[in-house]
């Protein structure tokens, strides 16, 4: 690539709030076949809200929220913040928690008043041999609506579930449509449940869902796509997206994201407007045409 043309490309990008780190990423963008979006905080706004609290038989919504609020007060996960907000809005305050442990991509574990508590996704409950106490059906229905289900257990017994919904960014649908028109495949990668991921993917007309991917495994999923012969762009926002952004042929960090993600990326979008993704790719096409 001639340095001048690349400079033109990167200069134009800056005008549109697109920061391109080097000419090499422009060349790769030209050969792209698939764009993989992280779900939480990238395709969605990352501001989940509690929509449903379903107690198991013998418990009340308050019981469920009280335990969840107490544990989640110690977690920094976006789901935790939403649960804490709801608990406080209902006038509850957290009980003292001991032995708090974050289980990456799964949930949390802790002791409240000497009782062992566990909170997290269905996968965590299955892993811990926990029966869903008749909540299976409701959990499946809620996930089918694109909601994330957080199960709450005490002393080896599930006491209820909390469903949360995280709305897609307004720009998501148009951005995905533009990428597909450009002949690219569009995928979503998420640590969330497969049915939750698929419901959101259906809404946004996403071609492929990589669900229940633990934070440490996102990079491996990107490399798997590359082994299939794909040239991969990964769009992410969070700290746990950094390895995947690095593994991808082009890492795109969205501006509302963390410094770590921005550092690991080739392209940074300065706002949360996802339409900058097809714009950045189009820009690279145009720049490469000038060069060739
Ligand atoms: P994503 O890949 O969608 O950004 P994460 O990898 O952060 O999501 O988390 C994956 C899943 O792990 C969440 O959807 C949730 O089910 C579960 N999880 C992790 N931490 C917590 C927590 N503190 N409270 C509730 N659920 C959690
Ligand atoms: Mg994220």
Give the SSE layout.
Elements: H1 3-15, E1 18-20, H2 23-30, E2 34-38, H3 39-43, E3 49-55, H4 61-72, H5 78-89, E4 97-103, E5 107-112, E6 115-120, H6 122-127, H7 136-144, E7 148-154, E8 157-165, H8 172-181, E9 185-189, H9 194-204, E10 208-210, H10 218-227, E11 232-236, H11 242-247, E12 250-254, H12 259-263, E13 267-269, H13 276-291
Parallel strand pairs: 2-9, 2-11, 9-10, 11-12, 12-13
Antiparallel strand pairs: 1-13, 3-8, 4-5, 5-6, 6-7, 7-8
Helical content stands at 40-55%
How far is the N terminus from the C terminus?
8 Å
Unreliable stretches: none
Backbone structural class: alpha/beta
What is the chain-wise order of helices and strands?
A: HEHEHEHHEEEHHEEHEHEHEHEHEH
Q: From the alpha-carbon coordinates, what is the Rg to the nearest angstrom? A: 21 Å
Strand portion: 15-25%
Assign an overall shape.
elongated
* Major sheet characteristics: 7 strands, mixed
What small molecules are bound in this structure? adenosine-5'-diphosphate, magnesium ion
Order of strands across the main sheet? 1-13-12-11-2-9-10
Mean pLDDT metric: 90
Number of helices: 13
How does this structure look, described?
The chain is an alpha/beta fold and 292 residues long. Helix content is 42%, strand content 24%. The protein contains 13 helices and 13 strands. The protein has helices at 3-15, 23-30, 39-43, 61-72, 78-89, 122-127, 136-144, 172-181, 194-204, 218-227, 242-247, 259-263, 276-291, and strands at 18-20, 34-38, 49-55, 97-103, 107-112, 115-120, 148-154, 157-165, 185-189, 208-210, 232-236, 250-254, 267-269. The strands form two sheets. Strands 1-13-12-11-2-9-10 form a seven-stranded mixed β-sheet, sandwiched between helices. α12 links the parallel β12 (250-254) and β13 (267-269). α1 (3-15) packs antiparallel against α13 (276-291). It is elongated, with a radius of gyration of 21 Å. The termini are close together. The model has no long low-confidence stretch (mean pLDDT 90). Bound molecules: adenosine-5'-diphosphate and magnesium ion (MG). Adenosine-5'-diphosphate binds next to α3, α5, β5, β6 and β7.
């Amino acid at each position: 690539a001639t340095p001048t043309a690349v400079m033109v490309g990167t200069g134009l990008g800056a005008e549109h709030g697109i920061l391109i780190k080097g000419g090499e990423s422009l060349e790769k963008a030209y050969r792209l076949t698939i764009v993989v979006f992280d779900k939480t905080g990238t395709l969605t706004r990352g501001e989940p809200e509690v929509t449903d609290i379903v107690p198991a038989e013998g418990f009340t919504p308050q019981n469920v929220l009280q335990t969840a609020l107490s544990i989640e007060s110690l977690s920094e996960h976006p789901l935790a913040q939403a649960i804490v907000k709801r608990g406080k809005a209902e006038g509850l305050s957290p009980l003292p928690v001991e032995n708090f442990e974050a289980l990456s991509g799964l949930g949390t574990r802790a002791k409240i008043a000497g009782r062992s508590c566990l909170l997290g996704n269905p996968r965590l409950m299955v892993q811990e041999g926990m029966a869903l106490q008749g909540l299976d059906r409701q959990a499946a229905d809620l996930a089918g609506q694109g909601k994330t289900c957080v199960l709450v257990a005490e002393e080896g017994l599930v006491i209820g579930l909390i469903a949360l919904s995280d709305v897609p960014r307004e720009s998501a649908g148009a951005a995905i449509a533009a990428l597909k028109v450009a002949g690219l495949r569009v995928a979503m990668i998420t640590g969330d449940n497969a049915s939750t991921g698929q419901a959101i993917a259906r809404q946004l007309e996403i071609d492929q869902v990589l669900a229940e991917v633990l934070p440490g495994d996102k990079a491996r999923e990107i490399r798997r796509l590359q082994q299939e012969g794909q040239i991969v762009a990964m769009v992410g926002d969070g700290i746990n997206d950094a390895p995947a952004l690095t593994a991808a042929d082009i890492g795109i960090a969205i501006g509302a994201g963390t410094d770590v993600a921005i550092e690991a990326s080739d392209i940074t979008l300065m706002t949360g407007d996802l339409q900058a993704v097809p714009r950045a790719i189009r820009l690279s096409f145009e720049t490469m045409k000038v060069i060739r």
